[in-house]
Amino acid sequence: MPTTWTQKDEKQYKEIRESALDRGKSKSEAKAIAARTVNKQRRKEGRTPRETTQGTGNPNTRLEDRTVDELYNLAKEQNIQGRSKLNKAELIEAIRDKR
Predict the structure, then answer these.
(1) What are the backbone dihedrals phi and psi of residue 63, each rounded to the nearest 5 degrees, phi first?
(2) Which of 71, 76, 85, 87 is the most exposed place for a label (fewest CB within 10 A)?
(3) Are 5 and 13 in contact (CB under 8 A)?
(4) Do 58 and 37 meet the contact criterion of CB atoms below 8 Å apart?
(5) How far is 24 from 11, CA to CA, in rounded Å?
(6) Coil, strand or helix: which one is 80?
(7) How far apart are CA 49 and CA 95, in angstroms?
């Protein structure tokens, strides 16, 4: 856990990690899910240097619930052409078509 996390962040991280473990996730996957969730909350509250994510979001989250930045990064990973001109709905459609 990063040193800039508050006690509340650490508590939330532990609870999410334990929940993921209870659902049968591996230890490393549970840690990743918990860290992404806490960091996303910190970004929303403006407690991080970056306002947007650099990742693709939680893989268990529906595409509709992810941010445009997360969808764009996912489209980039999948090498979808013209992604910079697509809106959120179009990114979702392109990602689904690529799967």
Answers:
(1) -60, -35
(2) 85
(3) yes
(4) yes
(5) 20
(6) coil
(7) 29
Q: How far apart are CA 68 and CA 5, in angstroms?
A: 26
Which residue's structure tokens are 């230890």?
27
Q: How confident is the model at residue 48 (pLDDT cuts 50, 70, 90)?
A: confident
Residue 56 to residue 80: CA distance in whole angstroms:
14
10 Å Cβ neighbour count for 92?
19
* Number of neighbouring beta carbons within 10 Å of residue 22: 9
Q: Tokens standing for 21?
A: 């473990």
Q: How much is the pTM? A: 0.55
pLDDT, mean over the chain: 89
Q: What CA–CA distance (Å, rounded) separates 61 from 67? A: 11
Contact of 48 with 34, CB cutoff 8 Å: no
